[in-house]
Amino acid sequence: MAMECSQKFAGRMVVLIFLVLVACQAAAASGDPSSSTLHARKLLNISGEGWRGGGGGGRVRPERMGPDECSEEDVVVYQSSANPLPSGIPAYTVHIINVCGGCRVSDVHVSCGDFASTELVDPAKFQRVGFNDCVVKGGAAMEPTEAVSFQYSNSFAYPLTVASVACD
Q1: Partners of 142 in beta bridges
Q2: Residue 46's beta-bridge partner residues?
Q3: Nearest to 97 by CA among 141, 148, 139
Q4: Using the 8-state DSSP alphabet, how is residue 33 labeled?
Q5: pLDDT over 90 percentage in the chain
Q6: In this predicted model, what pLDDT tens digit does every residue of 120-148 receive, in sequence order?
Q7: Which residue, 96, 97, 41, is CA-closest to 65?
């Protein structure tokens, strides 16, 4: 009896491990950036000079390391699956975020392949202007920490990555 119980337990563990591995593989293949991609972030340099321009009573202000200009790294794209359309066509939610806390960026272009959607995407938020070239907010400025969100539907998710930004 004890042997039969431990065999059932071992069988259940094998099935559980298999299901976890299948779920991890599906998440990696889904194109969900949060499951398989790390996003580069700017490092902070803490100097002991106090607050700039006004003395700080011993407090320090973090400063960005590297060039003072912003870069493509200051804008991130998150994409996830959404509820499919009633017709069964898969849908996706996209968030494009200016993660820089003190930078305005404009003319944000995203590499988007041959982006298309079965449902209209508001062109004031996201529009394909050429093959592998989509523009965010028609090139208008994104304020610090601003997010632009939209949904699209297609039989597959398009890989979306920031191609270029202009610093304001």
Answers
A1: 105
A2: 62
A3: 148
A4: H
A5: 54
A6: 999 999 999 999 999 999 999 999 999 99
A7: 41
**Locate tokens 């803490």: which residue?**
46
6's tokens: 């431990």
Give Cα separations from 24 to 14, 20, 32, 90, 130 (angstroms): 15, 6, 11, 20, 34
Global confidence as pTM: 0.61
Distance of CA 123 to the CA centre of its chain: 20
Q: Give the helix/strand (H/E) hosting 2.
A: helix 2-29
Predicted confidence band at 70 (pLDDT cuts at 50, 70, 90)? confident
Identify the band that residue 101 occupies on the pLDDT scale cut at 50, 70 and 90: confident
Alpha carbons 21 and 105: distance in angstroms, whole number? 40
Contact in structure between 144 and 59 (CB atoms under 8 Å): no
Distant-in-sequence, close-in-space partners of 133: CB < 8 Å, separation ≥ 6: 109, 110, 111, 112, 163
24, two tokens: 């991890």
Q: Classify strands 147-153 and 133-136 as parallel, antiparallel or unpaired.
A: unpaired
Confidence of residue 45 (pLDDT cuts 50, 70, 90): very low
Q: Do 154 and 90 form a contact (C-beta atoms < 8 A)?
A: yes
